[in-house]
Specification:
There is one protein chain. The protein has 645 residues and is α+β, with helices and mostly antiparallel strands. The protein has helices spanning 12-18, 34-63, 65-68, 129-205, 210-283, 341-344, 473-476, 478-481, 492-496, 556-563, 587-590, 600-604; strands at residues 71-73, 75-91, 94-98, 105-110, 116-117, 122-126, 285-287, 292-293, 295-296, 317-318, 323-328, 333-340, 352-357, 360-373, 385-392, 404-421, 426-428, 431-438, 441-446, 448-452, 456-461, 468-470, 574-575, 597-598. The protein has 12 helices and 24 strands.
Length: 645
């Protein structure tokens, strides 16, 4: 394999001619890989088309225009405007059977694709070993929760009885005890008072000593104190002890009730988990919900566009809620076609259609047109197609989902209109023309066109019935092959519109101010013009073989402006750290004063790189510094070996 050449071994001119100032910047487009392959394919197809076109031109010139001319007589008649597309047959009413096992599972056994089944038949079995282990563990948790619930319920019942027991038993008993003590204390007080009266009478008669009288008085006082104590005890019981005890017992009762409810919720949770796991275990055996034909729900795009959808087969892992089977209703069939964006606006629900499936023909109706395009692959990412569904009338027998169908949708039925073959119409500068043969001469006619199908197009103005139009104008008429030159005077404001400030776009003053030169391809001026350097002698956007450009990157001023693009710090000089690596091999040769920088005088003294070809550059590439100019919005690389743009 050849080794890359050392940059120091190349001349300054060669490296400058190949240098790209956008190299190394993140904004520069990267090409290669698939894009290179596509470009090669486009070039090969273009070359083949050019060869066929050249051969047809040679044959036409050899045979002469009169012998090669094909004509068609214009007549009034009916014109059917249709859109024909290919699609796939499917059921309008599919029953999707999904994996309903949490976390998915592995398919251990599956029924054969396309089998006819009845309701209740087993379609697939999923691995259930992990679920069985989870169920056994859950049963343990379930029993523990049930035991805790039973204990909490008993504790609550005991606490509830304790409140009732105190209010209706203990409290009443204590009240009765205190009432008894009060009664006894009252009786004792009355007896003591009677005894005191008797003792006082006897004391007055001299039968009782003073000490005995005093003792009897103390007995009365003690009886009074006993009565007051009994009454106070009853009052304390009723006002404080009862309230405190009831609050305590009710608190215990409410706590027990809350714990019971908590244990009940925990039990319900464990029970629901157990039932859910048991339900999942039952769903590892997938059964048919009704009769029908089994269709695997495989992704048709699997293997393309990086699709990660698992394949439906034995041993495959399926996700939860992933569709495994589809049971199509064969009595309600429809065709799904994809219609190009250029035709989809013409299609409306309710339009009639003709459907051809193998050797059978059916009629149908457009039922739906998608409002978003179908996903496309990387190969056809620019193609936008919209799904259109056409339902087959009645019951279609002997049809299977997935069959290829050709659908012709009737867009319009034009009656008594003039029409010509599509091949007879030529578009030039946005206008349509045809050529009418009149005896020994051919006349070009402008046309006003209407609707069309794949073969004929409606002519609303420009032709009359009986006119003889040329079917192959490009092959036999030079005028049909020549594009009309665009007017040199262009109203820029009318064509492109004014800016938001109401001003027209300003000219690019940095691309040369010499006298305007000849206009190149797509209106770009050649050498000496406002876009000098972008003609033939510039960067390859003008016609090949032109003189060297005098502006932009062609002359010393262009080189200076181009190399100064690398001045990243804006100091007016270019250092070694700012230039690309490919320039380091001859940086010192350009740096004549050896100060480590390239200033404007050193850049102006650089030699101009001769690249061959007329005007100092290869055809279509220019004699300036290709790739040296800064990237411009909208610029595209020129075609290889030909005029740019």
């Amino acid at each position: 394999m050849a080794t890359p050449a050392d940059p120091k071994q190349h001349s300054i001119e060669d490296v400058l001619a190949e240098l790209d100032p956008t190299e190394g910047f993140s904004g520069a487009p990267q090409r290669g890989g698939i894009t290179g392959k596509l470009l090669l394919a486009v070039v090969l197809v273009g070359a083949a088309g050019a060869a066929v076109y050249g051969f047809s031109q040679w044959r036409g010139s050899e045979r002469g225009p009169a012998g090669a001319m094909l004509t068609h007589v214009v007549q009034a008649g009916d014109l059917l405007v249709t859109v024909t597309e290919d699609g796939n047959l499917e059921s309008a009413n599919n029953v999707d059977i999904k994996c309903e096992v949490a976390g998915g599972g592995t398919i251990l056994w599956i029924v054969k694709d396309g089998s006819l089944v009845q309701k209740g038949e087993v379609l697939a079995r999923l691995d259930s070993s992990q679920l069985e282990d989870q169920i056994n563990q859950q049963k343990i948790n379930y029993e523990k929760a049930r035991a805790a619930l039973v204990q909490a319920e008993k504790d609550y019942n005991v606490a509830k009885i304790a409140v009732q027991e105190y209010l209706e038993g203990t409290y009443r008993k204590e009240v009765q005890e205190l009432d008894k003590q009060i009664t006894i204390a009252m009786e004792n007080l009355r007896s003591a008072e009677n005894a005191l009266q008797h003792t006082q009478g006897m004391f007055r008669k001299g039968y009782v000593s003073p000490l005995q009288l005093e003792t009897q008085q103390f007995s009365v006082e003690r009886a009074k104190l006993d009565l007051d104590t009994a009454k106070t005890a009853k009052e304390v019981l009723e006002k404080f002890t009862k309230v405190k005890t009831v609050e305590d017992l009710e608190s215990k009762r409410d706590t027990a009730e809350a714990k019971k409810n908590s244990e009940k919720a925990a039990f319900d949770l464990e029970e629901s988990r157990l039932k859910r796991l048991q339900g999942f275990l039952e769903k590892t055996v997938i059964k048919a919900p009704g009769p029908g034909m089994v269709v695997y729900a495989n992704d048709p795009m699997r293997g393309r566009m990086g699709s990660q959808t698992p394949q439906i087969e034995e041993g495959a892992m399926v996700r939860e809620q992933q569709t495994i089977f589809r049971l199509p209703d064969l009595s309600q069939m429809q065709v799904k076609v994809t219609v190009h964006e250029s035709k989809v606006d013409r299609i409306r629900p309710g339009m009639r259609a003709r459907i051809r499936i193998q050797a059978q023909e059916f009629q149908g109706t457009v039922v739906n047109v998608a409002n978003q395009p179908e996903p496309s692959s990387w190969f056809s990412s620019q193609v936008k197609e919209y799904a259109t569904f056409v339902k087959i009338d009645g019951e279609a027998k002997d049809l299977r989902p997935g069959m290829t169908a050709e659908v012709e949708i009737l867009v319009a039925h034009l009656k008594n209109v003039l029409s010509v073959p599509v091949a007879a119409v030529v578009e030039q500068r946005g206008k349509f023309f045809c050529w009418v043969r009149q005896e020994a001469k051919v006349e070009r006619r402008p046309l006003v066109l209407g609707m069309s199908n794949d073969k004929f197009i409606e002519v609303r103005d420009g032709l009359a019935a009986g006119d003889e139009v040329v079917l192959n104008p490009r092959a036999v008429i030079a005028e049909a092959r020549t594009e009309e030159p665009e007017a040199e005077s262009v109203d820029v404001g009318k064509k492109f519109g004014a800016s938001p400030e109401g001003k027209l776009p300003a000219t690019d003053e940095g691309r040369g101010k010499s006298a305007p030169g000849p206009v190149g391809d797509r209106g770009r001026q050649g050498p000496g013009g406002q876009d000098a350097g972008r003609g033939a002698g510039g960067t390859g956007f003008g016609p090949p073989g032109g003189p060297a450009g005098t502006g932009s990157a062609a002359g010393p001023g262009g080189k200076m402006r181009t190399l100064m693009e690398f001045d990243q710090d804006g100091d007016g000089k270019v250092s070694k750290a700012e230039v690309p690596e490919r320039m380091l091999g001859f940086f010192d040769r350009i740096d004549t004063n050896k100060d480590g920088f390239l200033d404007k005088s050193e850049i102006a003294a650089m030699p101009r790189p001769p690249r061959g070809g007329p005007g100092g550059g290869p055809p279509g590439a220019g004699g300036g510094l290709p790739g040296m100019g800064p990237p411009r919005t909208g610029d595209r690389p020129p075609a290889p070996g030909g005029p740019g743009r």
